[in-house]
C-alpha cells in the first residue's frame, strides 16, 4: 500500500531576493531530507535496497559533509581534520556502527547551522577562500552564490534518491 506524505511549504512565490530565495530553498530541501527519513527503522536507515549500496543514513551524513566541505573548508578556509569523513573509501559513503541515527542527524543540523551563519556574514559575490583546503594560485574560486546554487542542486538530486529509497522501504511517497 502506498502512503503519501505532504511536503513542507516552498518559499513564497513572490520572493525575489536571490539570497532569501537560495536560503529558503536550501532549508526546504534540508527539511525534505529529514522528513523522508522519519519513520524508517534503524535497519532501513542503515541498509541499502539499491545496487549502488548507499543507505539513507549514509546519504544524510554525506549531505552534512557536503555542507562542511563547501562552506567551512572551501568557502571559509577552515582547517578541517577529516573533510571526507563521510567516505569509508573513495565513492563509498559510510556510517559507523558506533554512530547513532541521532548523532548523524545532529551533525547534519550543526553543519546546516554553520552554513547559515557563514552565509549571514558574507556577500553573494564573495569568492571561496580555498578549493578543497588549498589556496589556488591561478584557479578561479567559486563565488558564494555559485556554491549555494551547487548545494541546492545537490540536495534536489539526493532528495529524489531518497524518494526512491523510501518507496522501496515502506511504500511511502511524497513530494
Question: Which features does this protein show?
Answer:
DinB/YfiT-like, 175 residues, DinB family protein, Four Helix Bundle (Hemerythrin (Met), subunit A), MST-like, mainly alpha, two-stranded antiparallel ribbon, two-stranded parallel sheet, 53% helix
Strand proportion:
5-15%
CATH superfamily: dinb family like domain
Helix/strand class: mainly alpha
Task: Indicate the CATH topology.
Answer: Four Helix Bundle (Hemerythrin (Met), subunit A)
Helix content: 40-55%
Query: What's the story with the biggest beta sheet?
Result: 2 strands, parallel
Give a verbal description of the structure.
- The chain has about 180 residues and is mainly alpha-helical.
- The chain is about 55% helix and about 5% strand.
- It has helices at about 20-35, 40-45, 55-75, 100-120, 145-170; strands at about 5, 85-90, 90-95, 170-175.
- Strands 1-4 form a two-stranded parallel sheet.
- Helix 3 (about 55-75) runs antiparallel to helix 5 (about 145-170).
What is the topology?
Elements: E1 3-5, H1 18-37, H2 42-46, H3 56-75, E2 87-89, E3 92-93, H4 101-120, H5 144-170, E4 172-174
Parallel strand pairs: 1-4
Antiparallel strand pairs: 2-3
Helix pairs in contact: 1-5, 3-4, 3-5
Protein name: DinB family protein
Organism: Streptomyces inhibens
Pfam families: MST
Can you summarize this structure?
The chain has helices at 18-37, 42-46, 56-75, 101-120, 144-170, and strands at residues 3-5, 87-89, 92-93, 172-174.
Amino acid at each position: 500500500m502506498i502512503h503519501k506524505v505532504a511536503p513542507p511549504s516552498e518559499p513564497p512565490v513572490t520572493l525575489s531576493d536571490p539570497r532569501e530565495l537560495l536560503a529558503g530553498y536550501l532549508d526546504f530541501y534540508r527539511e525534505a531530507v529529514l522528513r523522508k527519513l522519519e519513520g524508517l527503522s534503524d535497519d532501513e536507515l542503515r541498509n541499502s535496497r539499491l545496487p549502488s549500496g548507499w543507505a539513507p543514513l549514509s546519504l544524510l551524513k554525506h549531505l552534512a559533509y557536503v555542507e562542511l566541505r563547501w562552506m567551512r573548508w572551501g568557502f571559509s578556509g577552515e582547517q578541517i581534520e577529516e573533510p571526507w569523513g563521510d567516505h569509508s573509501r573513495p565513492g563509498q559513503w559510510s556510517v559507523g556502527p558506533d554512530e547513532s541515527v541521532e548523532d548523524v542527524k545532529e551533525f547534519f543540523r550543526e553543519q546546516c547551522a554553520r552554513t547559515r551563519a557563514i552565509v549571514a556574514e558574507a556577500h553573494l559575490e564573495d569568492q571561496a577562500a580555498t578549493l578543497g583546503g588549498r589556496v589556488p594560485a591561478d584557479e578561479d574560486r567559486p563565488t558564494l552564490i555559485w556554491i549555494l546554487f551547487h548545494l541546492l542542486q545537490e540536495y534536489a538530486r539526493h532528495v529524489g534518491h531518497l524518494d526512491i529509497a523510501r518507496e522501496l522501504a515502506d511504500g511511502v511517497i511524497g513530494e
